[in-house]
Structures are given as structure tokens and as C-alpha cells.
Amino acid sequence: GAVVSQHPSWVICKSGTSVKIECRSLDFQATTMFWYRQFPKQSLMLMATSNEGSKATYEQGVEKDKFLINHASLTLSTLTVTSAHPEDSSFYICSANRERGEKLFFGSGTQLSVL
Amino acid sequence: RKEVEQDPGPFNVPEGATVAFNCTYSNSASQSFFWYRQDCRKEPKLLMSVYSSGNEDGRFTAQLNRASQYISLLIRDSKLSDSATYLCVVNNAGKSTFGDGTTLTVKP
To answer: I need a surface site. Which of A2, A50, A91, B44 has the fewest CB within 10 A?
Structure first.
């Protein structure tokens, strides 16, 4: 069964609204979670590393005020796409691992479509 | 130069064929290596970890050459269900870097 749960799977929203995506580790505590974005026929692009109890670490070119990350507990990280626009439409995926450097478990992804 | 580079593909092969994917990485301090499989609009799923001694799992064989900073994946007796994108992943100090993926299509 899934060890990382991600919700929602699909979101369709109007331009200007904010969308929150949740990522939960189900049977382990994850001090670190990762958020990715994937455009069609392209690879995963790491957006940020979510750190429990502290600020997220964003990759170069990713706007932290646009993509708000909160990692308030050892099993939950959230990504909020603020004031979403059509160009934010993408597949967003989270991941976590039990131990640093070990294999990643991925959430099932969220397909965001901004109209 | 990208940190992790893969054969761009696409690879189109008949059922039963043997196909090999290659991946190179630039950071010699990289510590762990993986192959993931991703189906369209789905999350990546671990195919296998890659060890220096090489490892095999059924029809799949992975090799790591640290000296050449090179990873490979060999698929024997390809099945239709092997059609997917294969991602090479290299981890250093807890951070995973993904290759762009190689697309495989196995045809009847």
C-alpha cells in the first residue's frame, strides 16, 4: 500500500485562486519532504525541500511567495499555490524517504489545471 | 552540463528484445543510485536500487561504475507492460537529482 498519500489528485480552479496540496507520510515520520513539478513530456523538477519545523529550501528560480510550503508535523507537508495562473497548470508530486539518501516514496501526484 | 544525463530516447523495441539505458552523473561524491519507472500522469515508482556490485531482479539488471560515473539498466525479454519512462536518480547528501528520463515503447 501507499506510504505517502497526496491529496487532491485533481484540481481545476479559476485564475487568481489559491490551491493547497497535502502530502502525508503514512507509516513513518518524515523530517524532510520534497515537492516537484512536472510538465508534459518533461522530467520531474525539484521545487523545494520541505523541512519539519523550519523554513523550506527552494530551488533556484522557484518563487517562495508563490509556492508556500508548510511542514508543521512529521507526517504532513502542504504546498499552496497562491494566486494560481494558467502557467501554473502542471503535475505536482511530493516525496519522502524513511532515511536520508534512501529510496523515495512518492505521492500519487496532483494535476492542477488553472482556467 | 546537467548533473544527471540519460539517453534521450525514445526507444521503440519489439516484444522480447533486450534494451539498455545509460545514465551518467557529474558529482563524484554521489552516494546512492536508483532507477525509477514512471507511467504517463502517474507518480514514479522504484524499479531498483543500484549497487556497485551490480544487481539483478528478474529481467532487470542494474550496474554502477563509480570510476566512470555511469549507471546502466538492462531489460531482457521486453514485455508490452515495460512501456514507460525510466528515470535515473542520483542522491548526494540527501538530495535526489533526476535525469530527464528515457521513454521506452515495446511493440507487439
So the answer is: A2
Q: Partners of B12 in the beta sheet?
A: B105
- At residue B44, φ and ψ (nearest 5 deg) are -65, 145
In the predicted structure, residue A1 carries a pLDDT above the cut 70: no
Query: Which residue of A104, A110, A112, A113 to mutate against B (max B Cβ within 10 Å)?
Result: A104
Alpha carbon of B100: minimum distance to chain A alpha carbons (Å): 5
Q: Are B65 and B51 in contact (CB under 8 A)?
A: no
Distance from CA of A88 to the nearest CA of B (A): 16
- Looking at per-residue pLDDT, the higher value among B66 and B95 belongs to B66
Cell numbers standing for residue A71:
511542514
Single-letter amino acid code for the residue at A7? H
**pLDDT tens, position by position, B6-56:** 987 899 999 999 999 999 999 999 999 999 999 988 999 999 999 888 899
Q: Do A43 and B99 touch (CB under 8 A)?
A: yes
